[in-house]
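User: My collaborator sent over this chain with a note saying "see what the structure looks like." That's all I know about it. Can you take a look?
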Amino acid sequence: MMKTYNIYKILLVVGFMSTLIACTDDFVTVVPKTENSENYFNNQVEYERALIGAYDALQPTFWNVLLGEIASDNTLPGGDPGIVDGIDTHSVHEMNANENNGVLRSIWQWNYVGLNRANYILEFQDKTDFEGRDNIIGQAYFLRAYFAFELTKWFGAIPLLTNEEGTRILNKRIQPGDQYTMERVKDIKTAYSLIEKDLIDAVQKTNLSSSASFEIGKGAAQALLGKVYLFDKKYDEAAIVLQDVIDSGEYSLVADYNEIFENENENNVESLFEVQYSNYADVDWNCLQCGNGNVAVGYSGIRDYPESAPFFAPGYGYNTPGQEVVDEFEAGDLRKDVAILDIVDWASKNTGVSYTLSWGETGYYNRKYLPRKKNYNTHGNFALNHPNNYRAIRYADVLLMAAEAYNEMTPSNDVLAQTYLNQVRSRAFGDNSHNVTVTGEDLTNAIFHERRVELVGEGHRFFDLVRTGKAVDEIDGFTINKNEIFPIPLVELELANAVERWGQNPGY
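Assistant: Without extra context I'll predict from the sequence alone. Here is the result:
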């Protein structure tokens, strides 16, 4: 199978859902192309095509990853220092984003598009029977949960179509007109509960192993369920489901940390879930979501890097790591040079390297997702169109989440917590002499430190700080009971006539 979702671009099949929430400010007057939707799902191929359409909606969600770092204490927004471009990213970093922020609206739009494409499959899940149908339906539940979880992390108690009791998300599309009656769920904890139910269904229905690179297996559903349990402070439940992933034997740590982020080693044994990208289709500034490349990679590239210089390709200098996260790496940690590019040191060792420092002038770049010269081809805007997959869930993350769950559960099991933490550290240092032996709160802090250095640049840091209550101490400008989530885009409130009904998030 191709590594991207381009086998079928089924916008003619489910693209009308984009007009519902994402593609136009005039969707209330648009007649959606639904005339044939009820006549679909007549055979396995049609279910598979619809599933690919739901996966395809992951590609435009690149802002989730970029801003997950920029909003945290890991990176600066970067960009052109002369004009301070990317004002929306700067406001997110400075904790003063408002309801007109364009990148936050992109996160809202595209995650709802993906959620509704999954809804489309689930609405007709019982229409046609065939061998393997449960696996497709299980993946649809996973995708709906993934998109809903992202929306909840960013915006809190989101609007969803639920049953009268508010205990299940309805298996039906959000159609034009529904926005006028949809209600926000009661609170964030309720949202987590709804997402957990979808993931429990996904775990029950998905196959243990995936049959195509873009598909998730049971382990991904379990890992995401374990993560939601951590956000929901359900540590015992998290430990059980994450232990099952570990015991399955389906996943392991890649021996060489450097190999994880190179294209030739995508979808490897450490990856439970990757968002698939290619640079096959064109993309330009007028429609960043129109291509199939990872736009976040181009944003993160080195400003004015010469085409003649080795290994890397140029970009726009966003999402630049700060000195604090660089210093977080311990001496001898082999991950540092994989995660962080010191451009001054790189230029001193390689002929022909020059660059323009971006806003903030840290001198560091997120090497994991820097553009690689070898990935250039003849398609579209090179600086935006890169094939680097986003490693959304890695086995190292599973081990660290399991360590956290065992450490936080009552009573704690710090022996197992140390075991899983030290598996990650042993790879990082190439030996066992850096193993952690502390317990209790000291072990908790060691796990959080490890998450930061293991997962830096991968979009998790801001949400880790929020869910652990550490954000106010680590993020400049962070205000408790406000900055845990971001403002709902005003235009979305207005289009749904929901300024009063939904209300804005507190403090915005």
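A starting point for your reply to your collaborator: Residues 305 and 355 are 5 Å apart (CA to CA).
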